């Protein structure tokens, strides 16, 4: 098994297409396939903030339902899912861009996108264990003692990180730097917190290189342990990279 784990996309469809080309994928019908049978894995936060969240939903859905990719959800995915359920969620922190795109669609297309995304989300594992490449893929990471478990505590950690319940002055949640204390021998591949360059700590790697904030979209390849990135087409937002704790 060979995999390409792809960081937070946030509606940046052009960069995703370019990344697939850089990784050697070829388009068959309506989605990319690797000639060597490599498996792409999306680590969550497909939508919000970027220019084409609907396009990303379409592409990822086609790949996953045709067994050409795997997907685990992120916190933005969770919020969009709750929106589609009809729950009262605040359309902010990026969700407003996805719902604006959604409302531009005709009713038939709206139903299709809602069905595609809810199917993706409901069928997705909370995190993905990949023994063939000695790795675990989880949107915001996972502590070693939580691997193999499920439940509310694990869900909160995997979607939001090791949050303390407190917030910084700018409203960001305070998170413990769990990666510093990781001692396992499996790769933990995650995203969630934008970093300028992929952040390796112990056997963990954060590959959310802030594509939607103007930096890069990154894939981590296993078993090669190699990185491939493409530059973002979005404007660079300096303050999104001013902190280091994941």
Automatic annotation (TrEMBL):
Coiled coil: none
Pfam families registered for this protein in UniProt: Metallophos
InterPro entries: Ap4A_hydrolase (IPR050126), Calcineurin-like_PHP (IPR004843), Metallo-depent_PP-like (IPR029052), MPP_PrpE-like (IPR041780), Ser/Thr-sp_prot-phosphatase (IPR006186)
Residue ranges annotated for the Calcineurin-like phosphoesterase domain, each copy included: 1-195
One GO CC term, this protein: cytoplasm
GO molecular function: phosphatase activity
Protein name: Bis(5'-nucleosyl)-tetraphosphatase PrpE
């Amino acid at each position: 098994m060979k995999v390409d784990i792809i960081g937070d996309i946030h509606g940046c469809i052009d960069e995703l297409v370019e990344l697939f080309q850089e990784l050697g994928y070829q388009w068959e019908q309506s989605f990319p396939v690797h000639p060597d049978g490599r498996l792409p894995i999306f680590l969550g936060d497909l939508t919000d903030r970027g220019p084409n969240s609907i396009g990303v939903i379409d592409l990822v859905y086609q790949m996953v339902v045709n067994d050409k990719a795997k997907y685990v959800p992120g916190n933005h995915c969770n919020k969009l899912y709750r929106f589609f359920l009809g729950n009262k969620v605040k359309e902010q922190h990026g969700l407003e861009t996805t719902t604006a795109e959604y409302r531009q669609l005709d009713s038939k297309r709206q139903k299709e996108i809602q069905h595609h995304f809810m199917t993706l989300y409901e069928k997705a594992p909370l995190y993905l264990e990949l023994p063939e490449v000695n790795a675990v893929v989880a949107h915001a990471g996972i502590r070693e003692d939580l691997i193999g478990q499920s439940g509310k505590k694990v869900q909160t950690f995997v979607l939001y990180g090791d949050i303390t319940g407190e917030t910084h002055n700018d409203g960001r949640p305070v998170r413990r730097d769990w990666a510093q204390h990781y001692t396992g021998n499996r790769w933990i591949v995650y995203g969630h917190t934008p970093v300028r360059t992929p952040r390796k700590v112990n056997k963990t790697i954060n590959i959310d290189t802030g594509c939607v904030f103007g930096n890069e979209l990154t894939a981590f390849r296993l078993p090669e342990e190699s990185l491939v990135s493409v530059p973002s087409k979005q404007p660079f937002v300096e303050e999104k990279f001013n902190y280091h704790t994941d």
